[in-house]
Amino acid sequence: MKNSVLKGALEALAVVGVAAIAKKAIQRKRFIKGIFSEYGIKERSPFGLADKIREMDDEQYQELKGKFKKEFASRCCKTANKENTAEA
Q1: Cβ contacts of residue 49 below 8 Å, gap of 6+?
Q2: Which of 5-19, 43-57, 73-87 shows the highest mean pLDDT?
Q3: Tens of pLDDT along 35-61?
Q4: C-alpha–C-alpha distance, residues 48 and 71, integer Å
């Protein structure tokens, strides 16, 4: 009996994990679609994005780079924690 309950709980946890990963993938896909539509990129591939980046001036490129950094930044390590430990 205990093993079946444990197995059921682990399966439920796995389903929740897969759902969270799928949600994150959908959010990132929506972000990329928004970038393509905002900058008028017709070719929906990394090559189309690269071609558009080559055509951009420095200000536009820095803006796009900031958007990507904000969206894809790792949230596991905060720099504020590192600064506090450096003081001690």
Answers
A1: 35, 36, 41
A2: 5-19
A3: 888 888 888 888 888 888 888 888 888
A4: 20
